[in-house]
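Researcher: First entry.
Model:
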Amino acid sequence: MIRPFFAAAMAALCLAFALGAGAARADDAALERVLESRTLVVGMSGDQPPMNAVNREGNFMGLDVDLARALANAMRVDLRIEKMPFGELMGALEEGEVDLVISGMAITPERAVDATFVGPYMLSGKSILTRGDVVERFATGDLASQDVKLAALANSTSATFVREAAPNAELVEVDDYASAVAMIQAGEVSGLVADMPTCLLAVMRHPDADLVTLDEPLTVEPLGIAVNAGDAQFAGLVDNYLDAYERTGLLMALRKKWMENSGWIAALP
């Protein structure tokens, strides 16, 4: 589906690569590491479909995965994806264990203190995944007075949103979405606060579980690529690539592939 766009994207990226790589400095740790190892190491949770996931064959798939692969191809290096809990990704970036974080991560002022963000490459928003018999409690979007248990991914903007928007709710932080869905089905929590695509996917994957989500997201959040704060030249290079992907239509093709078509769901475990 994206092949017609890719040839045009690569042509534009040749110029972007030349400009960015030519400006690289010896103290630019991540870029130097990538060029020396000929490998781009990208951190992602692997549990955020349609952004990123591991399929039945044990391979990574999703919009983030396609984007990471496109970046590695543009840099003419191999791609290695490091799978880890979402809450550990920023620490891994700071320690140099990964070169980039591409994992449906919202750009926030708090995260921008510790990392440089490139993008956004997509807009998302918070929603609530819940059961049909309790959805009316959340339909108005007013969470301030709700005295319920709400799950959210640990160290995510969803967890922060629950703390701020639903101070009377009990927050249950989870390491993966599958655990939260199981807790909703078992009645252990009233709902999961997550990005709208995640909530919609859960509804599609469990058609007989009486799971529902809101018609409109509660917030609007830009998703970006996190680069170590000290790697200005590397961030500039990635920004050049992302700009070229947007201009050539590659990002739009990826959004349509993963957000508007559901054929890929069958490949999930």
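Researcher: Second entry.
Model:
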Amino acid sequence: MAPFTVYSASYTIGIVPQHAPKVIAQAWQPLLSLIEEETGHRIRFKTAKDIPTFEQALAAGEYDFAYMNPYHFVVFNESPGYRAMVRQRDKAIKGIIVVHQSSSIRTLDDLNGKTIAFPAPAAFAATIIPRATLSTRDITHTPTYVHSHDSVYLNVQRGFFEAGGGIIRSLEASPKEVRQHLRVLWQSPPFTSHAIASHPRVPDEHRKQITALMLSLSKSQSRNPVLSNLHMSGFERAKDGDWDDVRALHIDLLSVPEK
């Protein structure tokens, strides 16, 4: 029997469900295990069955830490008050629209009248930005929400939809047998990428300790596998104001929870 471990504190981290839960857990667990080993805090992985359920959990403050999209951070920074810790180093997020490699669709105008797959209504770069772009160009389309980025890519690859919304990072992390059959039709301008943030109840001492550990990852060759597992090159320190480019869009899709 393994020895009983006494943790100095126990926390949860919620990860936005861009992929299947098993895939997300495999990507994040090495980092969470490292945090446990070096800080003595227990970090329990959590996700949700889909993005709207994840949003409900953020609104209720269920996660002590969370990895969330830029729009989620803007909303849930206001209430219940999640505070930015780090974001992916030297990386902006870009929305994309993908089609099948063999598709005759060559321009956004070719999407007029099509039904397009998206992960969820409030998926920032994968849904909000592509849909806004299509609308400003008077390109009529019908959205269908399929719960995750992986589902978007799989549905387009299998021909169930002629196009779908996603982001560069999740496309690169999708299975090769799906990715190799897809073509990026369009990509958006860059925006500040996903946040790793803490709930206000997390003590500052622990928040700073975990932030420092994540910032140190890119400095150690021995820890590079942890980052490559996440398809990231490293983290950089973040502040709440880093997402002012998203705030400037004045998106109003999610209600801010009452404090």
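Model: Note on the second entry: The mean pLDDT is 92.
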